[in-house]
Amino acid sequence: MEEDRAPSRAGGLVRLHNTLGRRIVDYAPLETGHYRLYTCGPTVYNVVHIGNLRTFVFEDVLRRHLLARGDRVTQVMNLTDVDDKTIRGAQEAGVSLTEFTAKYVDAFFRDIARLNVDPAERYPKATDHVPEMIDIIHRLQERGHTYESEGSVYFRIATFPEYGKLSGIDLKQTRRGERVADDEYEKEDVKDFALWKAAKPGETSWPSPWGEGRPGWHVECSAMSMKYLGEHFDIHTGAVDNIFPHHENEIAQSEGATGHRFVEVWLHAEHLVVDGEKMSKSKGNFYTLDDVLARRDDPAAVRYLLLSVPYRKKLNFTWETLAGAAAAVERIRSAAVRISEVVSAGTPAKPGAFPAEQRAALFRSEFASGMDDDLNTPEALAALFNFLRQVNAAIDEGSLDSDGARVAEGALGFADRVLGVLPKAPEVLPAEIEERIFARNDARRRRDFAEADRIRDELSARGIVLEDTPGGTRWKKASAV
Ligand code: AMP
Ligand code: ZN
User: Fold this and answer.
1) Cα of 272 to ligand 2 centre, how many Å?
2) What phi and psi, each to the nearest 5 degrees, are found at residue 141?
3) What is the pairing mode between strands 146-149 and 152-155?
4) Which of 101, 201, 290, 312 is a Cys-bridge partner for 44, taking CB atoms 3.0 to 4.6 Å apart?
5) In 10 A of CB 154, how many CB atoms?
6) Residues 6+ apart with CB under 8 A from 41
7) pLDDT at 173 over 90
């Protein structure tokens, strides 16, 4: 697939729904043409489920869209490898925390790679950043936001009048001085929360000015985001369950420590649900990527399903919707194959040819403006299918010439830089190639060298290179030569 760069819209505005203030904003990054993006990563106490993957794919689509506009992106995704759940898991398994989390870190990278999620610039681990967390707690202490109790340190929410500005919780409900030590809790439990937790017997711990202990989950993300993106950056994302308490607490800690604004735009993906219920590891109603691929071995279809529903709408996972996604991907793939056949065929231009330049330009601008509108993927996909319908009709009636096909290929490549559902190399089936090699050998036996050369050229145009060796004819993809 020929990849084509969009005319750069770098530095322009992207329309996004900011959870902070619950409104649509037309956003330009703090540094022109460069987005600094923090995406909350997995808690590595289990393999991720397809709900988590929905959020990771949404973040990948955001990243790819910003890059496709011609902007630069620095994305950081943390790995939560110490919190209540990882510690409990390691204790139950009777292994060290590092040994316990390592296999889930590997599984996470394998899963996102299978869904064609592009790697972030950095994947910091919480356990490698404890000194940075201690530093933030220090700063909070100096500014009067904390108190200690039995070797633990808590954030006193009454010292941060803006507490609640992200989630809109009602602070009147809270009783001064009530505190919560758990990493996760519900809105009904809005309370002072733990920044540092005194070590319990048998738990992994680190030395600190307050004694042996470990960081609270929320301070991990404040420390790792500010270390790599600066104390004021553009976009912070997660799913809606992160809004309270995790992101509310991140704002309180970061702004409490620095005295200024932390993040400009907060984006939150709605949940993936099964039978109307949030898919979650603790409820046990979840599918992993392996579970899904065991029934339908088509990662591109899973990716398509996850991205095809606007990120702010709930996505109800069913096998039927997955089948629909697979059919949609197949339509895109088969159009790509047909277009590349016209490119290879060398069909000359003739009067009345399909106006590829003009149609492709219109399609690109519709696709881009759909994506610029708070990542409206259904609108972008509608533009794509409309364009493919026109191109398919032109191929059917023989009005697409090879130059036009090259333009269409470029436009499809442009859309797929964001969608990421097409195979990277042109799709050629090994059996089909073997059949052509057999026909060529047959021609050579008949001493029909013209035909043999013709078949070699035909394969070469499809990116396949033949090598005649004493052991027979071998083939490889041109890019690998
Ligand atoms: P966790 O590993 O629990 O920290 O979650 C990793 C990411 O997945 C976080 O951004 C969560 O908000 C998100 N997440 C958790 N459950 C779901 C779900 N059912 N649908 C979409 N995203 C989810
Ligand atoms: Zn986080």
Assistant:
1) 19
2) -65, -45
3) antiparallel
4) 101
5) 22
6) 77, 78, 79, 80, 108, 123
7) no
* Distance, CA of 256 to CA of 160 (rounded, Å): 7
Two tokens, residue 46: 């289990």
What is the pLDDT, as a whole number, of residue 480? Answer: 35
Verify whether ligand 1 is closer than 6 Å to residue 51 (CB atom). Answer: yes
CA of 239 to the centre of ligand 1 (A): 6
Amino acid at 417: R
User: 268 to each of 159, 187, 237, 333, 386, how far by Cα in Å?
Assistant: 27, 17, 6, 31, 30
Q: What is the reported pTM?
A: 0.87
Length of the chain: 481
Could you give the count of Cα atoms lying within 13 Å of 10 in the half-sphere of its Cβ? 14
Contacts of 342 by beta carbon, 8 Å cutoff, 6+ apart: 395, 400, 401, 402, 404, 405
Task: Give the pLDDT band of residue 429 (cuts 50, 70, 90).
Answer: low
**Span 255-277, average pLDDT:** 95
Of 101, 241, 309, best ligand 1 pocket probe by most atoms within 8 Å of the beta carbon = 241
Q: What are phi and psi of 326, to 5 degrees?
A: -65, -40
Token pair for residue 92? 């139950």
Ligand 1 closest atom vs CA 270: 21
The C-alpha atoms of residue 91 and residue 86 are separated, in whole angstroms, by 9
DSSP sequence for 107-134: HHHHHHHHTTPPPPSB--BGGG-HHHHH
What's the CA gap between 78 and 237, in Å, rounded? 12
**Ligand 1 contact, 280 CB (< 6 A):** yes
pLDDT band at 428 (very low <50, low <70, confident <90, very high): low
pLDDT tens digits, one per residue of 198-243: 999 988 999 999 999 999 999 999 999 999 999 999 999 999 999 9
Report d(CA 303, CA 296) in Å as an integer. Answer: 12
pLDDT of residue 1: 46
pLDDT in tens, 8-38: 677 789 999 999 999 999 999 999 999 999 9
| Ligand 1 atom closest to 43 (CA) | 2
Note residues around ion ligand 2 (Cβ under 5 angstroms).
40, 221
Read off the pLDDT of each residue in 386-411 and give the average, rounded to a whole number. Answer: 97
CA atoms 401, 402, 407, 411: torsion sign: positive
Does ligand 1 have an atom closer than 6 angstroms to the CB of 271? yes
Ligand located closest to 108 CA: 1
Provide the pLDDT confidence category of residue 6 given band limits of 50, 70 and 90.
Answer: very low
Residue 342 CA to residue 404 CA, distance in Å, equals 9
Residue 322 neighbours by CB distance under 10 Å:
20
Read out DSSP for 384-418? HHHHHHHHHHHHHTT---HHHHHHHHHHHHHHHHH
